[in-house]
């Protein structure tokens, strides 16, 4: 199955659905990327959902002279349908993504941006109705302290809670629940598990709302959930 077909099928599921499937496939934390939440077009509100292959951008501290220096600006090479994933240096106060970047990303057909760091120009992203997920907001551009070193290379999540790597082409799913990284090589296996677990939970909820206990409903309906 090609990436476009995988993304189309994933659009029917939430980030929690994807995480449930990845737990069954023994992916740590169900692929959840801790600390990244929705800031635009609303702050942790609404039905916004993004699904697409990761286009990764790695920032490093400006004085890291031995790191690569890509030619051109990363934002001009964003593939249509992708999710831009920006990796900032750990503990950087400056923002590493602003409104002009969302203008260009939206024009090129990106479906959203995830920032492992701070964003700025929040109202501008919201006025564009462009989805942005990040750790926090800020006011100051990155130029004085950081620069881009790599584009479309593996990046590691800035987290003391988990060890997670986002590879170019991994599928990123973001919604009000958070952001999940679905490894490209597991996408079809995960999709194969999702529908049966969602169907089971719908039946469990219906039974609970009729007065049945959760234990009874889960025992009956989850017994038929597809396993890897």
From TrEMBL:
Coiled coil: none annotated. Signal peptide: none annotated. Substrate binds at residues 98-101, 120. The keyword Transmembrane helix does not apply. Keywords: Magnesium, Metal-binding. This is Ribonuclease E inhibitor RraA/Dimethylmenaquinone methyltransferase. GO terms for molecular function: 4-hydroxy-4-methyl-2-oxoglutarate aldolase activity; metal ion binding; oxaloacetate decarboxylase activity. The lineage of its organism: Eukaryota, Fungi, Dikarya, Ascomycota, Pezizomycotina. InterPro entries: RraA/RraA-like (IPR005493), RraA/RraA-like_sf (IPR036704). It comes from the Eukaryota.
């Amino acid at each position: 199955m090609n990436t476009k077909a995988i993304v189309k099928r994933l659009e029917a599921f939430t980030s929690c659905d994807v995480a449930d499937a990845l737990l069954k496939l023994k992916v740590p934390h169900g692929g959840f990327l801790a600390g990244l939440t929705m800031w635009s077009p609303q702050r942790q509100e609404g039905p916004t959902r993004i699904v697409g292959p990761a286009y990764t951008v790695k920032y490093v501290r400006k004085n890291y002279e031995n790191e690569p220096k890509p030619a051109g600006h990363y934002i001009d090479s964003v593939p249509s349908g992708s999710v831009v994933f920006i990796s900032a240096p750990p503990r950087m106060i400056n923002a590493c993504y602003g409104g002009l970047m969302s203008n260009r990303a939206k024009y090129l057909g990106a479906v959203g941006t995830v920032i492992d760091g701070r964003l700025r120009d929040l109202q501008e992203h919201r006025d564009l109705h462009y989805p942005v997920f990040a750790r926090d907001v800020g006011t100051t551009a990155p130029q004085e302290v950081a620069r881009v070193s790599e584009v479309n290379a593996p990046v590691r999540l800035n987290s003391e809670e988990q060890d997670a790597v986002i590879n170019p082409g991994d599928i990123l799913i973001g919604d009000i629940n958070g952001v999940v990284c679905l490894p490209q090589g597991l996408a079809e296996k995960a999709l194969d598990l999702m529908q049966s677990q969602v169907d089971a939970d719908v039946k469990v909820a219906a039974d609970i709302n009729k007065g049945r206990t959760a234990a009874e409903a889960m025992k009956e309906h989850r017994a038929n959930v597809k396993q890897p």
